[in-house]
Amino acid sequence: MSHAAAHSLNSDGQFPACACCDGLAAPLGRRGLLRGVMAGAAMLALAPRFALAAYGNYEAMILACIDPRLQEPVHAYAQQNGLIGQYSQFVIAGAAIGAVSPKFADWHKAFWDNLAVTIELHRIKKIVAIDHRDCGAAKLAYGDASVATPDKETETHRAVLAEFRKEVQQRQPKLGVETGLMALDGSMMMFT
User: Fold this and answer.
1) Does the pLDDT value for residue 190 go beyond 80?
2) Angle, CA of 97, 57 and 112, to the nearest 5°
3) Average pLDDT, the chain
4) How far apart are CA 26 and CA 53, in angstroms?
5) Among 135, 130, 133, 162, which Cα is nearest to 150's?
6) How far is Cα 125 from Cα 110, in angstroms, rounded to an integer?
7) Nearest in space to 190 (alpha carbons), one of 135, 130, 149, 146
């Protein structure tokens, strides 16, 4: 709360003296200056510890699609698999499609760089790529015919997720990979 919000002006047009402002008008002595310098030095000494707070040992990264219909089902999947509080997330159109399809080549570097940083910072053990049915990015990347029937859609995603697993194994060979195709109701078909 600002001083003005906490107090009203007195009849002289000044803020009245209060405990929160005591000493602010007094000149700063050597002891006060020394205390300030010591406090600043202590904060600088602790800065590396604050930076380490971003590090940790987490279970996974979830790669998911931007489709608003999938936000809750992906969260539910994470919850059912004990990942709440144990995963980072990368959300991109098409999920694995956005990471490997030639149609979205400009996006690839951002994803793979982000995965490398997540491994370094969060020490994740695996990545979980969740593609989904009725995905607009799949149609854009591979054409309407690639998703025209449930069987064709499944095969398109199966191939994309196989390519994704291959890419992860080449770039991050120690990382586990789980891939699946999620229906809009949240049910999953896993691919290995």
Assistant:
1) yes
2) 25
3) 83
4) 38
5) 133
6) 20
7) 130
What is the average per-residue pLDDT within 132-150?
95
Question: Mean pLDDT throughout 127-133?
Answer: 97
Strands 126-132 and 60-64: parallel
Q: Is 138 exposed, middle or buried (0-12, 13-18, 19+ CB in 10 A)?
A: buried
Structure tokens at 132: 């989904």
Side chain identity at residue 185, one-letter code: D
Q: What average pLDDT score do residues 12-21 get?
A: 50
Which CATH code fits 60-191? 3.40.1050.10
**Domain limits of the chain?**
3-52, 60-191
First to last CA, the chain: 56
* pTM score: 0.71
